[in-house]
Write the structure tokens for this entry.
Amino acid sequence: MKRLAAISAVAIGFLFCAGLTLAQKDAFVGSWQLNVAKSKFEPGPAPKSQTRTWDASGKVSVESVSAAGKQSGYGYTIKTDGSSQPTMGAIPNGADAIVTKQVNANALQATFKRAGKDVENTTFTVSKDGKMLTINAKGSTPQGQAFHNVTVWDKQ
């Protein structure tokens, strides 16, 4: 009986650790709502709202309502193998590709490119509790204007 209890405890511990590992791997997956009040847009203006959906395959879709009330959407696919992936839609920095690498279970670094040139460097970080995503993006618009945005997203 003691032996069965010990084996069961080890098995439960193993499954718990495996579950934590899987949860860390998928820290970015889900729906995220922009917290405009906690975010900083330099030079601005901030959008009225944004929703970011990140699926298990790495596809990211963003639906946005600009400060002027115009709706738009864009997306890209995150592949952490360093390969270049195309962007889709009216991405604000005008990028046509993204290259991403995994820093750790809760952080990614990405470089957005336009015509082969770097136009934005971004760090995506999910909080340890998995409830907040912070995106620190620094780059330039297609018109050459520099920007530095730090956006905070709440998990839905």
Observations:
- The chain has a mean pLDDT of 89.
- The domain at 28-155 is CATH 2.40.128.20 (Lipocalin).
- The chain has one domain: 28-155.
- The first strand starts at residue 30 and ends at 34.
